[in-house]
Write a structure and sequence with these properties.
Layout (H helix, E strand, L loop, with lengths): L20 E5 L3 E10 L2 E11 L5 E2 L2 E2 L2 H14 L6 E6 L4 E9 L6 H12 L7 E11 L3 E10 H13 L3 E7 H12 L8 E6 L4 E7 L2 E8 L3 H12 L3 H10 L4 H30 L7 E5 L8 H9 L2 E4 L7 E2 L5 H7 L4 H7 L4
Parallel strand pairs: 1-6, 3-16, 6-10, 11-14, 14-15
Antiparallel strand pairs: 1-2, 2-3, 4-5, 7-9, 8-9, 11-12, 12-13
Helix pairs in contact: 1-3, 4-10, 5-6, 5-7, 7-8
The protein binds adenosine-5'-triphosphate and magnesium ion (MG).
Amino acid sequence: MKLLDKLGPLKANIGKRKRLLGVELSSSSVKITELKSSSGRSVLHQAHVVPIPPGKVTMGNIEDQEGLASELDSIWSSLNIKNRNISLALPGNLTILRRSRLPYVPPEEVEKAIKWEIEKTLPFKLEEIHFDFHVYEFYEGESIDLIYVVARRNIIESYQHLFQTAGINLDVLDSTFLALANTTIVNYDELANILFMVIDIGTENSNLLVIKNNRILYSRNIEVGGVLVNQTLAHATGCTLEEAEQLKLSGGADEATLREASHTLATKLYGEVVASLNYSQNLLGTQEQIDRIYTTGGASNTPFLVTELNALLNADVETLSPIRKVDLDPQLDPSYIDDISTRIAVAMGTALRPL
Ligand SMILES: Nc1ncnc2c1ncn2[C@@H]1O[C@H](COP(=O)(O)OP(=O)(O)OP(=O)(O)O)[C@@H](O)[C@H]1O
Ligand SMILES: [Mg+2]
């Protein structure tokens, strides 16, 4: 298995190789998608968001290997999913993705140059990690523009062990950031020339990406998500966090408290958006503004959140559609896909195969 075998041109090309299901395993649920191709278009063949019991995965760490493996095995069986070959998007907080410009070396020496860079800039020994890279551009004799991803070996091994125990073949390890970029680039190809941002707002974590010219400029993991909304609701009403989650999802929370909760979340995200924009402008060497931000992830549905972000950022904030340019298999229930569409962007992105 190659780590992060997804750094190619980030284009969909399903069907030429063994077809893999795209999977995101997170603290709340497992998301499973399968794409096929038909006449050059991607077709979503199946998509599931299945809750997993709390405490099995926290911050991407697998807390109960055996219990979770048997849970995954029964999810595959009960949904009658025949394909047990997957591409898994590792959580954003457990991978480091860097866009970097290194002094020029010939192609055969790039790997060595990245090892130097990793040793110099990251707090890991090389033997503790796996990495993979993709060169965007060689500037002959000057520099190399590239992207690389790093993940710790022990994390990778714990995911390998989990899926092996579940009888599921972990073929490709991907990164949440690359998967999100894939989904966005495939669905919004007309944005190629503008600088824009994608924010995936999950349970405990959010992942932020800045993209231009179909290339990731910058990525950042932020340790906030829907739990923060629950904490504000629980504090205001005196209920437990679990009750707050139910209150939020059932639409029973009062408007003033929800506004306060979404304001708190939006404010946390705002600071990170500004920092990421500054970083990206430095990389580009311009003051180019971001005028479009796409949100996804379950917590992006928090009432008033998009309005709050809009007001803070003075940018056009929209919900990302992962199926904007993807057809639906006629057997799928469009209203179910609509319900889960903010939660499958990562799983879909990792199901899209590069050329
Ligand atoms: N309709 C909704 N309104 C508000 N919040 C919602 C809604 N639906 C889901 N959420 C919240 O979204 C979060 C789950 O979203 P998602 O599945 O994208 O996260 P995740 O991938 O499990 O999280 P992480 O990546 O942090 O592990 C939970 O916090 C949940 O409360
Ligand atoms: Mg997630």
